[in-house]
Amino acid sequence: MPSGTEAAGLPYRHRDDFLSPAELSFYHVLRQAVGSQFEICPKVNLWDLFFVARPNENRGAKGRIDRKHVDFVLCEPRTMRPVCAIELDDRSHQKAHRRQRDAFVDEVFATAGVPLLHVAAARSYSAVEISSQISELMQQTARSTTDDRNNQRASSTQCPKCGSKLVQRMASKGPNQGQPFLGCSAFPKCRHTEPVAPQ
Length: 199
Description:
Mean pLDDT: 87
Largest sheet: 4 strands, mixed
Strand content: 15-25%
Helix content: 25-40%
Distance between the termini: 74 Å
Low-confidence stretches: none
């Protein structure tokens, strides 16, 4: 005999509070701040944003992020490539366990080279100020990421973006068809490529 729940169907129901009032208020201001420059994705799981480089060497790393999310992610409209994330920090972020969680998430984003902006929850926001904060943070992160990649150039067999192994491949189409190039072994999660050094 099926239980009462099974007889009535699956126990899932539609939520009316996908975004909290504070998140919804900020979302509308964020739309004004970014205009058509970015698409806004709310409540994004970290595992949808990042992957584990060299998973055989980093067992358990996925489990540290696959149950965490950030409040908003900004993506390039054409490619939907994530370019920045935003955390709306209310008073719960002042608790010790949340501060520890936030520090870890900050480190994940910094390691992956994706800017993460923290915005204190408030009754009102300035779209101009938020737009300025996003632009400034993205510029800072771009400079830092470029410096880090330049420092990693000494290892020609390691992907400067994710640390995975670079492998030689052959272009099968496009203007470089038939030409060799180095590509990240973590493709398609990492699409870094670079030319083969002349012999």
